[in-house]
Amino acid sequence: MNTNTTEHTGTSRLPNPQQLVPALGEVGAALFKATGNGAIPRATIGLVQLRAGQLVGSAYLAILHAGNLRGAGGSEERIAAVATWRDAPYFTEAERAALALVEAVLQPAPHGERVPDELYTRVAEHYDDAALATLAMAIGQVNFFVPLALIGKPLPGRSPAEQWTPVPTR
Fold this sequence. Notes:
It holds the Pfam family CMD. The chain is an all-alpha fold. The chain has ten helices and no strands.
């Protein structure tokens, strides 16, 4: 039984998932390749993934994707304003459509569909079919890792080698 908690040890709750499930590296690489096909600007993917991390309440994912945006030259204003994108002046209409889409996908809809026809039409005004599919995969990419982030609780802001406890040797 694993009783490791971040409160007690200052480490993640799970040992390194890639060591536990080696195929995880291949899956992660395939998802990165799928979203990096050039159909959507990397900055847009980063904004969507940062917003997804915020929406699911993962400090690790929010800090990871904010750092990725910073590393790609994203401004502090844009990064800080992602949570309030609706009234922030830093985003293009295409980015706003992508941010609205990630929110619709990840938040329960009180009435009707999560992604109503009106939102789809708005997003489709900015993205062709390949870009829309890539945008869906970008949302799926970050969501693939949500369970590991919430259950394993890797440490925000740490390198991959530091964020997970090592797999115990037997």
